[in-house]
Amino acid sequence: MSDVDGTEPGARARLAAFRLADSFLPVGGNTVSYGLEQFVQSGAITDGDDLREVLESYLRRQVGPCETVAIRAAHAAADDLDALAQIDETLRATTLAAEFRESATKAGRRLLEVEAQTGDDPVIAAYEERVASSDAPGNYPVALGLVAARRGIDAEEACLLHAHSFVTDMLGAAQRLLSLGHVTAQRVLDDLAPVAADVVAANEGREIDRMEPFAPLVDVHAMEHERADRRLFMS
Q1: Which fold has domain 34-223?
Q2: Which InterPro entries would you find in this protein's record (predicted)?
Q3: Of 44, 80, 168, 211, which is the most buried if we count CB atoms within 10 A?
């Protein structure tokens, strides 16, 4: 069955997923490096092989056991604004680095604003109002889980597109920091695809109260970045 505009619902959902995974989406992904800038400045990353190893650590220790868990929880609670706000607060409390908290809420607020202004979903609009009035943080994974659910994108696909977007954003940052070649960047992206799929599957059953991000060196570099005299990225 087609929607009133003649588009199949499944096609609409897939197109929405493509848009959410696109760097063209104005949520500020090109302004953050999530501590990658400090990894490069410290000499820990000098080439594509180093970068692949560090990004795999991000996926396995941060994105998978924390952010994809929040996405799934928000997806499941997409009709309950109070539950969404609680998930949002839990994610904020779990995120140690101040710059990570700031960049996550800025991106989430931008996503909710774009969706509220370009769509007509009442739940997204209502949650955007709560976030705008500071009744909820508006972390990006929570906003993404909500938007995905309301757009008909299943939870697994939302988690996969988030992992993909995270890696592409980091590769974009690395190209500016390392003069990384386009082919090398694509090779790293391809190498990390099975890792992304693995971490999404591995954390499928993890509950929100068991979010366990554990990447101490990432947190240390993020805190160093906060005090750095010269910074190319906001995190």
Answers
A1: Urease accessory protein UreF (1.10.4190)
A2: UreF (IPR002639), UreF_sf (IPR038277)
A3: 211
- Number of Cβ within 10 Å of residue 230's Cβ equals 6
Q: Where do we find the tokens 């992304």?
A: 196
- pLDDT tens digits for range 114-158: 999 999 999 999 999 999 999 999 999 999 999 999 999 999 999
- Tokens 């909820």 belong to 136
Q: Structure pTM?
A: 0.91
In 6-86, the DSSP E strands lie at: none
Question: pLDDT per residue over 43-101, tens digit each?
Answer: 888 999 999 999 999 999 999 999 999 999 999 999 999 999 999 999 999 887 777 88
Residue whose tokens read 């955007």: 128
For residues 181 and 209, give the distance between their C-alpha atoms in angstroms, rounded to a whole number: 40
